[in-house]
Amino acid sequence: MKIKTKKKNYLAIFLIILAIVIASFFYIRFSIKRETKMLSDTIKEEISKLLELSTVKYNYVNVVAYKDNKKFSGINMPFTNKSFLIKYSGYIKAGVDLKSAEINVNDTKSVEIKLDKPKVLDNVINEEDSYIYDEKESVFNQLKLEDLHNVLVKEKKNMEKEVIKKGLLTEAEKNTKEILTSFLKNLGFENVKIVFK
Question: Cross-referenced Pfam families, in alphabetical order (predicted)?
């Protein structure tokens, strides 16, 4: 009788321990998933508040000569020359648009973020630092504000093309990876993967 009672006690203890282990397993498994979801939401909120992440700023100073005269049948007309030199400075910022970021939190230690490729976010000429030198105009062909505007718009586009050729967007991609990786590692993630679409 004592042997049957001992066997029943051992069986009861074994079943209780087994039930505790199974309950603990399911509790831990489902609590980790809930925590992962909360982390994913938190990251999305933080990143969407940034909207744009500017990671490179290129400052420039340039001088442009503008010359124009009226033509008749392809021949320059006398006394219609107008010209000026303009010195200007500006900056170009490049980075990524974070509105379309796709965030996948695999577990509490791993995250993957998919971003659009870096692009030029801002190209600004500092109007306060612009100086016009050597203005020349004629009665028949006067300088207009539109001339200055057209020159600066064209120069902004040229400068943007030039710095992109020099690797501005590559530098922006590299800096974006470094900044976001550091940010996410500070949040506790060990494995951070940044992918550009």
Answer: DUF4230
